[in-house]
Amino acid sequence: MILAAGRGERMRPLTDHTPKPLLPVAGRALIDYHLEALARAGLREVVINHAHLGVQIEAALGNGSRHGLRISYSPEPEGALETGGGILQALSKLGPDPFLVINGDIWTDYDYARLPQRLDGLAHLVLVDNPPQHPDGDFHLHTDGRLRETGGVRLTFSGIGVYHPDLFTGCEPGRFPLAPLLRRAIAQGQVSGEHFTGRWVDVGTPERLRELDRALIAAAGSPD
Predict the structure, then answer these.
(1) Of the chain's two ends, which shows fewer C-beta atoms within 10 Å, N or C?
(2) Which part of the chain is the Nucleotidyl transferase domain (predicted)?
(3) Looking at residue 217, which CATH number applies to its domain?
(4) Which range marks the domain in which residue 84 is found?
(5) What pLDDT digit, counting tens, does each position of 71-123 carry?
(6) Cis geometry, peptide bond prior to residue 13 (ω within 30 degrees of 0)
């Protein structure tokens, strides 16, 4: 599942007329990078939620055949359902097994094929080094591979996670965040993690979008 329902307030005015996942980066829509990476990893079924200007997302991506994927959509009401509510609404499309969720507003060269095929618990999160805009991080990755809220150096949640449907047991349909569910599961020792040290960008502002655009264009023009 790719999360694409956010309004993108920090991206305004760019997102006034274009949904954030369709913003261009080095000549391609941001979400295209995710779709291509998922296809390379052998994944074929993708669910995309949307709210703000969602019809543009469906028109641009269609059924996913251009990427060798099968895309289905989970439309949300105006204002969206936040991450937790959006995933809960899409559970019927995601099936009974653990599923991958990716924030639509990140860019990364993470290889999704390296994610665990089975979960030892309720979730597995990919963590990255803390970016300048989030210096304190989110969670501590213990030597046993489990996440803690305290106990050592904290890393930042990348927006890439694998979740078991049981993480949402007891949740009621509607608007709610994902973070409290993760924190509860972490407290129960039910969340594993990994530290990814490759390329990752939280494309949350026009400035970071421009920086990524310049970096990818420069890399494409490099003889290496």
Answers:
(1) C
(2) 1-124
(3) 3.90.550.10
(4) 2-221
(5) 999 999 988 899 999 999 999 999 999 999 999 999 999 999 999 988 999 99
(6) yes
Extract long-range pairs of 186-189: CB within 8 Å, 24+ residues apart.
186/139, 186/146, 186/147, 186/148, 186/149, 187/149, 188/122, 189/121, 189/146
What does the DSSP 8-state code read for residue 165?
A: G
Res. 8 pLDDT band, cuts 50 70 90: low
State the CB neighbour count (10 A cutoff) for residue 211.
13
DSSP 8-state secondary structure symbol assigned to residue 146: B
Asked if 23 contacts 51 with a C-beta cutoff of 8 angstroms, the reply is no
CB of 169 within 8 A of CB of 96? no
Q: What one-character DSSP code corresponds to residue 223?
A: -
Q: Which two tokens stand for residue 88?
A: 């809960």
- In order of 29, 37, 110, 116, the CA distances from 69 in angstroms are 16, 11, 19, 21
Quote the pTM value. Answer: 0.93
The residue type found at 206 is: P
Number of domain units in the chain: 1
